[in-house]
Design a protein that fits this description.
The structure is a single chain. It is built from 13 helices and 34 strands. Strands 17-16-18-19-24-23-22-20-21 form a 9-stranded mixed beta sheet, with helices on one face. The chain has a 6-stranded mixed beta sheet with strand order 5-4-3-6-7-33.
């Protein structure tokens, strides 16, 4: 329904004055002229001129045309289907089909009284119940209910009917929440307790270092096998590494089985845990699980050198050693001996000592000149900074120091700090810094600025350079106070560790100088779409496009599949679908400047059947969900019981009104009317011999 009205910026009574003025001017123009026009012609010209002037004068009042749209919105009934694979696997197909037909019958009878809409866990809207495939690999009912309500915001929702077996495999239970609309639940699946063994959970390190051992914990769920035993087997590449016997003393319990695995072969390794089935077991699918562990060759090596002990050293060391990916060596003159190593370090931290110091030169550190460094400033060393290619120049005022607190540089280009850390930096105790002028080269950027008192300056506190080898400079002394402040505020050192760890990570990581870069966006994919990012650069490291890339995938059986792709600006990703579970090696190649560039790597496709671990329907959860949200529970066989609720008590439609306003000057028909009046008057005057 549409309603129109006109409003003015001034009093509408002025329209009468403007109308009389328009009539007066028009009368003077046509009734006092001595043209040889007939009386009818004068009257017609008079009317057109009066209307034209009235329209023009009326626009002075800035009239607004208001549109009122009134719409009747019928009640909506949303039906959310749990389309996960546990329903088809745990239900009798004939019975499931009959239950779905009952739901379809409810929809058909509700049509006309309600707007009925089918939705699924993965956010799809179905036209027909026959479109259900029950292939969703996980069930997150809480998320699905919330998204269904959000996507249908603005509709006149009467209720949400959740059709599910009640088995939740992701997210929190929906019974923890109250939702915006009444929720009715329909229970599918079989609640019968069946004899079954299953691998409920696996706990293991996704990364381990070659030569180390890593633990694997298996949680075995037993249902109905009291007094019996089974064997849990760990395999690698089809060979049994170890097996353990587990005894079930109760009819329903969970047993934990621990393995300690040696990481021998580098690269991503596939292990398999399986339970030997027992007689009478209902579901064998959940007796086997795969786990993928990345075995890396070694840790990144960090070295700290200092002439004397200092509390900052303890703070730095504690932060670095929280990351198991780093191997940390420390050498303080006069305390212990220098670690013997033939392999170059990934990062050297010089704490109040310069790289050209005789002590450092006597150590003969492998690859020192090409290794990234982090220098912690000491007063009196300013003059030697340039000699050692430190990325900051200081002209200090002798004997003058500032007490400065850090401020995060929001324009820092190399990495980001968390919002919590950025806020925390402002509350830290000050560190001592020489007062003077600071000059940075073009390749260096401050991560932290100095704040003296309440004044934020552009003087650097922590500087990072991007050229290889990368360098960092910390110009203040007293980091140990920051670590204590973190613990005082949060009872942990997480934020301080983040500052140190992210800086160490950036400095110790080698810049990728390859002109062709092809890499999967994740190291592990679930079965579905596999995505690769591609980057191509010329000799000046400018981004290039429209150069063909050949990608070859090889599975564990040695079978190869080739793909061709040409990246364009705005479309530089390769998508591959339907790869079976396994470890894949890939080789990507392209011809750049008449030279073939090649890159290799690997990724994992896993298919953990979490929906098939437990097939016993959980109708008690569905009852609780409905009762907490003003609805009711019915089993799939009794869907017709909902007809009384929804067909005999149909809520009224909701009437909504919306007002839109448009200035007359913006309306094209106003200009058309003015042109018609003006052109018609002009034509008639000319036609009858007027001027």
């Amino acid at each position: 329904m549409l309603a129109l009205s006109i409003t003015f910026s001034s009093s509408p009574e002025i329209l009468l004055v403007l109308f009389l003025l328009s009539v007066a001017i028009s009368y003077w123009m046509y009734q006092t002229k001595k043209e040889s026009w007939t009386r009818l012609t004068r009257q017609i010209l008079f009317i057109f001129r009066a209307l034209l002037l009235f329209f023009l004068f009326g626009l002075i009042l800035s009239p607004m045309l208001s549109y009122w749209f009134r719409e009747s919105i019928p009640p909506t009934l949303l039906i959310l289907f749990d389309n996960s694979s546990s329903i088809s696997a745990g239900s009798d197909s004939v019975r499931l089909s009959e239950q779905l037909n009952l739901i379809e019958s409810l929809k058909n009878e509700a049509n006309g009284k309600y707007e009925v809409q089918y939705n699924t866990l993965d956010g799809r809207t179905l036209e027909s119940i026959n479109d259900l495939t029950f292939q969703q690999s996980s069930t997150n009912l809480n998320s699905a209910i919330r998204k269904t309500e959000q996507f249908n915001e603005g509709k006149n929702i009467s209720a949400l009917i959740v059709v599910s077996d009640g088995i939740v495999t992701e997210g929190n239970s929906p019974t923890f929440y109250r939702y915006s609309h009444p929720i009715y639940t329909v229970g599918l699946g079989d609640t019968t307790v069946r004899m079954d063994l299953s691998i409920k959970d696996l706990y293991f390190n996704k990364i381990s270092y070659q030569g180390n051992q890593f633990p694997v914990q298996v949680d075995i769920k037993n249902q109905g096998f009291m007094g019996q035993k089974s064997r849990v087997i760990l395999k690698h590449n089809g060979s049994i590494l170890e097996s353990k016997t587990v005894s079930f003393s109760n009819a329903s319990d969970i047993q934990k089985v621990d393995f300690l695995v040696s990481a021998e072969q580098k690269g991503t390794q596939r292990y398999q845990i399986s339970i030997e089935p027992l007689e009478g077991e209902y579901n064998l699918t959940n007796n086997t699980r795969d786990l993928f562990v990345e075995i890396v060759e070694g840790k990144e090596k960090i070295l700290l050198i200092s002439k004397k002990p200092h509390p900052d050293i303890k703070a730095i060391r504690s932060a670095i050693e929280t990351n198991e990916n780093y191997s940390f060596d420390i050498f303080i003159a006069g305390i212990g001996s220098f670690p013997t190593t033939k392999e170059p370090y990934d990062l050297i931290i010089y704490h109040q000592i310069l790289p050209n110091d005789p002590l450092v030169e006597s150590l003969n550190i492998p690859g020192q000149k090409t290794t990234a460094s982090w220098y912690f400033f000491q007063s009196g060393q300013q003059g030697q900074l340039a000699i050692n290619d430190i990325p900051v120049s200081v002209n200090p005022v002798p004997g003058e120091f500032d007490l400065s607190t850090p401020v995060f540089n929001t324009a820092f280009p190399y990495f980001q700090l968390s919002d919590d850390l950025s806020s925390f930096l402002r509350n830290l105790p000050p560190v001592s810094i020489p007062f003077g002028n600071y000059i940075l080269p073009a390749n260096a950027s401050p991560l932290l600025f100095q704040r003296v008192g309440s004044i934020e300056t552009t003087k650097p506190l922590l500087v990072i350079s991007s050229d290889e080898p990368k360098k960092g400079v910390m110009l203040g002394e007293g980091l140990w106070k920051w670590r204590l402040q973190d613990y005082r505020q949060h009872q942990n050192h997480i934020l301080f560790n983040e500052l140190i760890s992210k800086t160490v990570q950036y400095l110790s990581t080698k810049t990728d100088k390859r002109k062709l870069r092809v890499y999967p966006v994740s190291s592990v994919f679930s079965q579905g779409e596999i995505t690769f990012d591609t980057e191509i650069y010329n000799d000046l490291y400018e981004r290039q496009y429209n150069i063909p890339i050949e990608l070859v995938l090889e599975n564990e059986a040695g079978e190869k599949t080739s793909y061709s792709f040409t990246p364009t600006e705005g479309y530089n990703r390769i998508y591959i679908n339907n790869l079976p579970q396994g470890i894949y090696q890939f080789v990507a190649s392209a011809t750049l400047s008449d030279k073939k560039e090649q890159i290799t790597g690997q990724f994992v496709v896993e298919n953990q059947p979490i929906e098939l671990v437990d097939l016993q329907a959980n109708h008690s959860m569905l009852r609780l969900l409905a009762s907490k949200n003003g609805g009711a529970f019915v089993s799939g066989d009794n869907v017709s019981n909902l007809k009384d609720q929804f067909l005999n008590q149909v809520p009224p439609s909701r009437l909504e009104a919306q007002e839109l306003q448009e200035p007359f000057l913006n309306l094209p028909w106003v200009l058309i009317v003015i042109l018609i009046f003006a052109s018609t008057e002009w034509f008639l005057r000319k036609y009858h011999g007027g001027y």
